[in-house]
Amino acid sequence: MPLSAVASAREILTRLHDVMASRSAAQAKLNSVVGIIGEALDSEVCSIYLLREGVLELFATRGLAQEAVHVTKLALGEGLVGSIARNVETLNLDEAAIHPDFAYRPETGEEKFHSFAGVPIIRRERAVGVLAVQHVESRRYDDVEIEALQTVGMVLSELIANAGLIDNASSDTSRPQSTAVDRVPGFKLVEGMAAGVAVFHQPRIVIEHTVAEDTEAERHRVYAAFDKMREQIDRMASQAEFGVDGEHQEVLETYKMFAYDEGWSRRINEAIESGLTAEAAIERVQQRTRQRMRQIDDPLLRDRMHDLEDLSNRLIRIVSGQLGTAAQLGLRHDSILIARNLGPAELLEYDRRRLKGVILEEGSLTAHVTIVARAMGVPMLGRVRDVRRLIAEGDRLLLDTATEQVIIRPSAAMDEAFDTRLAQTQQRRAVFAALRHVEPVTRCGTRIHVNINAGLRDDIAALDLTGADGIGLFRTEFQFLVSATLPQRERQQRLYRDVLDAAGDRPVVFRTVDIGGDKALPYLNHDEEGDEENPAMGWRALRLALEREGLMKAQARALLEAAAGRQLNVMFPMVSEPWEFEEARTLFEAQREWLAARGKKLPVDIRYGAMLEVPALADVLDMLMPRLDFLSIGTNDLTQFLFAADRAHPKLAVRYDWMSPAIARFLRRVQRTLHGTGKPLAVCGEMGGRTLEAMMLIGLGIDRLSITPAAVGPIKAMVRSLDRTALAAHLETLLVNPPRSLREPLLDWARENGVELA
Question: Which of 1, 629, 749, 752 could staple 5 via S-S, CB 3.0–4.6 A?
């Protein structure tokens, strides 16, 4: 914080220290506190509201009517004070009455006050009260005043907790509200099934002392803690199980970058300078980080902020001497880890023999911890709301990411059913594994090409494990997403060469970087684009890459040099019109000429393809065909564009079926356009990885699929049980006068014809 904010906070904390050390009753202390804060900030009103029996009660005030103390009560979310507590956010208003959450309470006599500022009083990550100031004059409070209020809020948390002024129910979030069996939904981050006892990653460290006796001593404690933490991170990075290369190493390097960030350590030192203890200073900066996270819409930036949160937790444990995370204490049983969120390094500390699964209140597919968990083979369920309230330490849990739920305290019958399903899953995996070296040929003799989708260096191992034909989609943007800075051309080239080396004679299709939309990169400036109302249909993928020509040129050179002496397959995402494809192809060819002029070894052949995700491209394929070598249909984006339905919208995500006649007819039209041209047509995406949907695609004449590695076995089994000729004839009949969905009719046909569906 700025020097003036430091001085302001220190002045208040010095006076509060004497109040807290006195033998006065708790109410008298709070009465003194509002006087000290009001005087220091030259504010006519200072009030403290505390959470009691589920409502916010006015406990002390300077400036409002004293008769309102213990009388005025607000529900969470009611009025400005209730909004601050519910959202755990700060408000700073020059005209309080025009705010939509404003609620007038006549008994307080506050009608003459215009300006308002309030901060939450936080304990164990929850608001247990609100500290508010008001002023007759219509003005916003300065940043230094808000900083001072937030710092004082920490000290008040200690005072009111020690005085027993808040309900135990308000502050104790460690116990579940029920002992009954419960099913809680979540979001699949890493696939798998797991059973074990609930283990909390980290019991929350409650800071008992917030006001420093000796600022210099506190500063030295933080310096020592930083040294120890950085030592731990360096050791972890050097001992990681994933080798010296790969995205996991990049994850740890990014994590390390945060550990050495001077700005972070400076903010903690400034908080100490204001009068806080080392623990309170770290927590103070951490609280500000959490409040920033609540305001960030970009999921990638939120994930990076979680890395900083992870490091803050580590630092506060070191400085307080409370190092007992579940990892450091050791797992004694098969365990499922519970956390609000995790950093990648924290997950790596666990014994993989005992760690069976992870459940997070937050989490996302692009988070560093998800990448590491996938590499460890640990099932992970994210976005499980209230998990730490519903689950108690030691509860038995059943985790199944296929059903996207966790069963808490299961009955014996549930345990038995889970074990049976787990055994069946393992048996089916064994059956599918046996198909690894078997070609996927239909009963009528059609060879279906089954490729995998990949994006990380370690994904390439799935080629041998599944017996897939190749990589039909390598998402090059993954390297950009896990990097703290824009990957240099040499790093990109090294990754692409490693992928080609591992694939050997099997083909690899590299999709050029698909960023933007929900895959924004924090190190690229997006200010000029502004906040897009619908980023999925906005400035992303090839549109963005063509504008940022330097980025695409670097990737083109990296791909060309990596594929020297081999065939290079390049695919451009989200092509809407032929000229976009032509511009991208011309850029690649110019880079090839540039390298050739300098005597560089080049690919023996380059094949250029496009992803059909934007429906408009289907009507101009005849114009594109002379320049196109292959086409892939991206069914995920195509579906949302065809139906004008955002696939991330909870009400629309399941409304429109992939087996709608509209989808089937569209795909049939594209297939017929390419039929006989010699240009291969593939489908990439989740649709091709589901056995019934894949069966329909094959019936429509599509013989190339690129799918998640886990789906290869089930798809091979389905293909080998299918008579494509018979299915194609049946589909033609169905599409003449189709039902609302083709799902049930095709399910019936599959059962009648012995098609094996997973």
Answer: 1
Which CATH number characterizes residue 516's domain? 3.20.20.60
Query: Is the confidence at residue 61, as pLDDT, over 90?
Result: yes
Query: Any idea which residue has 């099934």 for tokens?
Result: 193
Can you tell me the distance from the alpha carbon of 565 to that of 600, in angstroms, rounded to the nearest whole number? Answer: 11
* Contact indicator for 652, 672 with CB cutoff of 8 Å: no
**Torsion angle defined by CA atoms of residues 525, 529, 533 and 539, in that order, rounded to the nearest 10 degrees:** -90
Could you tell me the CATH number of the domain that includes residue 344?
1.10.274.10
Q: Is residue 722 part of a domain?
A: no
pLDDT band at residue 242 using 50, 70 and 90 as cut-offs: very low
Q: What average pLDDT score do residues 426-452 get? A: 88
Q: Packing angle between helix 549-562 and helix 489-503, nearest 10 degrees?
A: 40
What is d(CA 593, CA 516) in angstroms, rounded to the nearest whole number?
29
Number of domain units in the chain: 3
* pTM for this model (two decimals): 0.60
644 in the same domain as 538: yes
Structure tokens belonging to residue 589? 């060819």
What does the block give as tokens for 469?
């034909």
Q: Do 307 and 392 share a structural domain?
A: yes
Domain that holds residue 535: 439-713+742-750
How confident is residue 551, by pLDDT bands cut at 50, 70 and 90? confident
pLDDT in tens, 699-713: 999 999 998 888 899
> Can you give the pLDDT at residue 527?
45
> Do 290 and 371 belong to one domain?
yes
